[in-house]
């Protein structure tokens, strides 16, 4: 039995949702910072790319460009475009960020519950219950 098949996309989804929560929390923490640009990423696009085989560059010299590191590559990070920009250049819209954070948290909990149920089922199968 392959655990990757049993758990599906949920382990990757949890990692991406956790990273997205960090980003949104950072946006909210900087809501009053002049010039701060709110950041986010397209969750579905990044998850879809994580499901496929990633293309990794191999460097042969120390001065070559290094491959992207982290859960979400920097090239996938986007800046939010505010519906009503502030005069100080800050693009954080607190209500939008709070709504996005709540939605992301619910989806994180859904994946976590799915994994918990799957693990409980596997545990019962191993015990022979």
From TrEMBL:
Chief place of localization: other
Pfam families the record matches: Flg_bb_rod
Keywords: Bacterial flagellum, Cell projection, Cilium, Flagellum
Occurrences of domain Flagellar basal body rod protein N-terminal (ranges): 13-37
GO biological process, alphabetically ordered: bacterial-type flagellum-dependent swarming motility
GO cellular component: bacterial-type flagellum basal body, rod
Compartments where located: Bacterial flagellum basal body
InterPro entries: Flag_bb_rod_N, Flagellar_basal_body_rod_CS, FlgB
Role this protein plays: Structural component of flagellum, the bacterial motility apparatus. Part of the rod structure of flagellar basal body.
Protein family membership: Belongs to the flagella basal body rod proteins family.
Subunit structure: The basal body constitutes a major portion of the flagellar organelle and consists of a number of rings mounted on a central rod.
Name of protein: Flagellar basal body rod protein FlgB
Protein's organism: endosymbiont of Tevnia jerichonana (vent Tica)
High-level lineage: Bacteria, Pseudomonadati, Pseudomonadota, Gammaproteobacteria, sulfur-oxidizing symbionts
Name of encoding gene: flgB
């Amino acid at each position: 039995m392959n655990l990757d098949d049993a758990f599906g996309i949920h382990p990757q989804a949890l990692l991406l949702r956790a990273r997205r929560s960090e980003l949104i929390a950072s946006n909210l923490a900087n809501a009053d910072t002049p010039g701060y640009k709110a950041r986010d990423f397209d969750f579905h696009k990044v998850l879809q790319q994580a499901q496929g085989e990633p293309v990794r560059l191999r460097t042969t010299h120390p001065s070559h460009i290094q491959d992207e590191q982290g859960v979400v590559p920097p090239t996938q990070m986007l800046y939010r475009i505010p519906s009503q920009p502030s005069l100080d250049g800050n693009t954080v819209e607190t209500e939008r960020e709070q709504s996005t954070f709540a939605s992301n948290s619910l989806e994180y909990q859904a994946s976590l519950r799915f994994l918990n149920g799957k693990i409980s089922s596997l545990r019962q199968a191993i015990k022979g219950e």
